[in-house]
């Protein structure tokens, strides 16, 4: 079973009477744990998820290690940097979503992303009224 954090915008205040209901963004489900894709792809994963500072930082550290460290230490350092990026990737993504106004609204436990959406619909139907 995997844990998924649910990030959604708070409900907007109702508009004047007779106006259409304001549009809300669909919630985002972020899986908990280690990201193998972030470990393998490194800065490309961060850039794909629009984590620009993290992508630049990891790329800068990798290039600096390549130029400054001796060969026997370089491999271990690069692997360690990318493994650390894999452990931190999802937390950085959660922080970005919070900065964008999508704070954490809850946690869903499920086997897959589809099951997580189904369980979210059971637990919080107000959040899944607008599906992605």
TrEMBL record:
Residues 1-24 are annotated as: Disordered. Residues 9-19 have a biased composition (Pro residues). The chain crosses the membrane at residues 28-46, 58-87. It holds the Pfam family DUF2628. This is DUF2628 domain-containing protein. Keywords: Membrane, Transmembrane, Transmembrane helix. The keyword Transmembrane applies. It comes from Falsiroseomonas stagni DSM 19981.
